[in-house]
Amino acid sequence: MRLAVKDTDKTVADFKSLLPPAYGTRTPEWLVYSRIDNLKSRLQTTELTVKAIENRENMIVVDFSATLPLRDVSSYSRIVNLLGYQETLAFPFVNIRSIQVDQSGSETLQGLKLVVEGIVQMPAPQEDSQ
After folding, report:
1. What is the largest CA-CA distance in the chain?
2. Fewer beta carbons under 10 A from the terminal one: N or C of the chain?
3. What does the alpha-carbon distance between residue 99 and residue 66 come to, in Å, rounded to a whole number?
4. Distance of CA 69 to the CA centre of its chain
């Protein structure tokens, strides 16, 4: 019996470690916008477009598009690795839909930009039906 209680406690602790610190104390909308803020600061975007928050299929969703300068050859791998890391984080989830290279500004590397499109989403709170 003690072993079962210990296993249950460990499972609950493991689950709680996946949740952001503000989960349960902040609204889902606040958590989604907080993740968008985090993305903007880490990616060092030159432009970030965020659409209105929506409720789709029991998920709170925000679509975004970010434009990032490619300053040098290592910028590309740094950005892709950072986006991959963001996709591994739990609540709110980041899902990158596309990464495109925009060459319209210049023929040189310094004129290239990455355009990243994705969504930030998390489960919508369930209404109590009583």
Report:
1. 69
2. C
3. 10
4. 19
Number of neighbours of residue 39 by Cβ within 10 angstroms: 21
Q: How many other CB atoms are there within 10 angstroms of residue 122's CB atom?
A: 20
* Both structure tokens of 111: 């004129």
Question: Which of 15, 55, 12, 5 minimizes the C-alpha distance to 32?
Answer: 55
Between CA 68 and CA 82 the distance in angstroms is 12
Axis-axis angle for helices 28-43, 73-88 (nearest 10):
160
- Residue 79 near residue 43 (C-beta atoms within 8 A): yes
DSSP per residue, 61-90: EEEEEEEEE--SHHHHHHHHHHHHHHHHS-
The one-digit pLDDT tens for each residue of the chain (130 residues) are: 788 888 888 887 776 666 666 666 778 888 899 899 988 888 887 889 999 999 999 899 999 999 988 877 788 888 889 888 888 887 789 999 999 888 776 665 567 888 999 999 988 876 655 4
Candidates 126, 124, 101; CA nearest to 112 is: 101
